[in-house]
Amino acid sequence: MAVPVTILCGELGAGKTTLLSRLLETANSEIAVLVNDVGEVNVDADLVEARTDLETGDEVVALENGCICCSLGGELSRAVIRLWKEHEFDHLVVEASGVGEPEPIARQFVRGPAGGPYDLEAVVTVVDARRFHDRFADGDDVPVQQGADEEGTRPLSDLILEQVEFCDLLVVNKCDLVDDEERERVVALLETLQPRAEIVTSEYGDLEPETLLGSERFELETVRDSAGWKRQIEADAEVDEQDHDDRGEKHVHDHDGADEHGHGDADAHDHAHPPERYGIEVEGYHCRRPFHPERFAELLRSLPDGLVRAKGLTWIAGREKQAITTSTAGAETTLEVTGRWIASFSEERQETYRQGQPDLAWDDEHGDREIRLALIGRDVDWDALESRLDNCLLTDEEMDADWSDYENPAPTGMGETVTISSTDDPEGSSR
Ligand SMILES: Nc1nc2c(ncn2[C@@H]2O[C@H](COP(=O)(O)OP(=O)(O)OP(=O)(O)O)[C@@H](O)[C@H]2O)c(=O)[nH]1
């Protein structure tokens, strides 16, 4: 029988080790633990070991040389397979590095060699209620430490939201440090960011072992596709497919979902538009016309305060081949080349690719080039944001001009990223 696995994620200091120590103390089953820390010599492993080994004899294995999700894919698989061969236990918990992306770790257990002896049951993300509130859910402008991760490529806020979006259980920890309303605001925002995840609240990780260990089998595709931004994009795309009037003009769907075209899929509709609480809303923006690179960068430097998340594909003038993913988390936006527009290939290859993707929406003039963003925010003036986004689009005149001369901060190579930070000037020039 495959051993169930739980992956534990969450930003540095959110309370993963505290929760894990408690779990090891209270669970009746034999739990093996794999701990990974970036740049530190397994302080957590020592801690967990010190607190649990003598009492329970639980196994603790530590990975030393970096982050499991980047370089240690192979090492992770080897370590957990060795563990499985050499020891008997009922459950494996992997405590992931505080700055890692959870998906590559999960993949090791779903598609990698570790998928044989193990069965991934749950990805649990621990959220520091206080810090999450101040960073994303507060109406006031509280200064919070932002910045890129250790490699300088991804802002911390982006990784935190990715961990929230890629999990099936969210533990809102440190609830002693927020009041009831602040806690509710955090929960409402988390529900919007990942509508499918179960959400529990805790202080010092005081949860029943069953809450953490008793979940159903993890489904990678389902979890990945259920992030709030993704649902919004899919619901919008579905509407466009049904709507044959979508001829290159942009439209923003109303926040209550009552866009002028109507939704075809009630389920997608419900999930894409969760109940509005604390002014939290989800919007979509779609257009088959590129952004002017300088005007778009200017907008990203002066985003409205309440915008928590924006994510999706963008077409940026001067980058005719590059399909660029825009990912805004709080004040920081990462632009990353995540693929190539099919329309930039030769006719012959376009045919081949399009045959492989019969559902791909195609415009006679622009092919698959488009801007399709999901926007999540609280108390955002959506009309104002929409018109600011519209002002970033090329004008008719610019559409016919040469785009190669623009100052263009957008990345060019596959996988390349550029981060643009928003200042505290929401009224900043966006023209
Ligand atoms: N006030 C408060 N402090 C907490 C709570 N949970 C954990 N802490 C404290 O927060 C600090 C960080 O907790 P850890 O459990 O080490 O956090 P972590 O997520 O494992 O941190 P990294 O290993 O650095 O990623 C410790 O000092 C804990 O005692 C809580 O619910 N409330």
UniProtKB/TrEMBL annotation:
Catalytic activity from the UniProt record: GTP + H2O = GDP + phosphate + H(+)
SMART domains: CobW_C (SM00833)
Region Disordered, residue ranges: 237-275, 400-431
InterPro entries in the cross-refs: CobW-likC_sf, CobW-like_C, CobW/HypB/UreG_nucleotide-bd, P-loop_NTPase, Zn_Chap_cDPG_Synth
Sequence ranges assigned to domain CobW C-terminal in this UniProt record: 280-393
Keyword terms: Chaperone, Hydrolase, Nucleotide-binding
Pfam families: cobW, CobW_C
Biased composition (Basic and acidic residues): 244-275
Molecular functions (GO terms): hydrolase activity; nucleotide binding
Sequence similarity: Belongs to the SIMIBI class G3E GTPase family. ZNG1 subfamily.
Protein's recorded name: Cobalamin synthesis protein P47K
